[in-house]
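Lab channel / #folding
Pinned by the channel admin:
"Please post every new chain as: sequence first, then the structure tokens as a reply. Keep commentary short and put observations after the output so the thread stays searchable."

First post following the new format, from NK:
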Amino acid sequence: GKKMSLFKSIATFGGFTLVSRITGFARDMILANFLGAGAVSDAFFVAFKLPNLFRSLFAEGAFTTAFVPMLSHKLVTDGREESIRFASQAISVLTFFLTLFVILMEFCMPWVVELMAPGFASDPQKMALSVELSRITFPFLLFISIVSFQSGILNSFGKFAGPAAAPVILNLTMIVAVFAFVPFGETPAHGISWGVTIAGLLEILWLHFFLRRIDVSVKPQFNIRRLLHNAEIKTLFKRIAPGVLGAGVYQINMVVDTIVVSLVGTGAISWLYYANRIQQLPLGVVGAAISVALLPILSHHLKAGEIEAARHSQNKAVEYGALLSIPATVALIVLAYPIIDILFRHGRFTAEDSVMTARAVIAYSVGLPSYVMVKALAPNFFARGDTKTPVKYSIVVMIANLSLSIALMIPFGHVGVASATSVASFVSLYQYLRGLKKRGYWSYSAELNRKILKITLCSLVMGGVIYLGELGITWKFDNWLLLSYGIKIPLFAGLCILGVATFCVMAKLTGVLCLTDILKMLSSRGKKNAQKQA
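Reply from TO:
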């Protein structure tokens, strides 16, 4: 089989995910402008979070982590035809059960919303609006789950671009919905909610096109009862079950945050939502890219018995994770306020909202590197078909997060809730490092330790330089964030460029980053293709 370069796959997936996150920000800026941070926006975010919560429970984590290794193994052992048949069976069984689940949820929606946002109970109108909007958005869950299976198939075949670009469709559809449907709905939120569900259908069509290009046709199968007795489908579901818990823990943490924070008062849900979006940018791009790219590669090595290669891939993944997340963390902490101010402070989003959101961003950022590292380490369990261990870890993390959230909320409000998430991430990382070592799957080398310390040093120097830069701007312009966009965006871009430049210089001095290596990795594919054609 062909070898995929880990760096290449991370770069492809990460690049497209970045585009999707940027369109996501455009979407959030437009939402902040039309919805602000009040009752309608709180209702809409609950309706938007609901299908997304279940999607992260089932789709993103559980299905892919159980399905991709099985499909990768099948490709190594049984070849293409068999693998595609297995994929069709899996999608059919899944669609059947999710359709039932969606119908059930539509009926139970009032109770579900009450569980999600107990703080709304005092406001019947807000409650009713949330229920109505959630009924509109919920079918999105079914569509997006089919999408995640389609993505899993494409990833197993080494195709990362199509699936990574799919979320762009959701963002663009929501943006279009704001302008197309909003004038006709009762509230702007109605039109945006319809946009969410329509986007799910569009994503299925989009990935169908990519599957056709590599000549994979997934045919639905209707003999569900017979499929449930199929040994492979049984194994898949056995592995999905713990994956649902495991992948969902980060999400359950977020829901815990929502529940706890709905008690802090109006606006707090929205502050945490926007702060979490900022933190999700590096986490989603870097963390997701690493785990998605690593999974089929590790599965392949382990199935073929290439233990050394598997260990090397794991080291690389952790190193790329550190290299991308530690500087991002430092930059987010130093620039939290300007970032939030520039992105969101307009329309109905006030200066006080900016300060509150920025504080949450700083609290979330501290935990960012450990979340990214966990994303790089978890595939080591999944590739071996072990979906149970990560779940046990996740449950511990969830309990830590919940108890800390409640303890820290009382003195620190929404910032306490965000800090609890960060502390929980360290607990999570500690468990993974210990668990992998104990089982002899992978352990932390002294060389990797040196690299991470050097990366941290470079990042701290970078943070210091950005901070001084910002002091300089403040000294020159007093409150520079009150200036027009035409002035403050170039100033902000200047700070970012200063940061990147400092990091690169430091990385060269400490020998963390060898630019020629990266250029070699990027051009290696070009060379290979040239050799193939020659």
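NK: Residues 525-534 have pLDDT under 50 and may be disordered.
TO: also worth noting, Residues 388-438 form the longest helix (51 residues).
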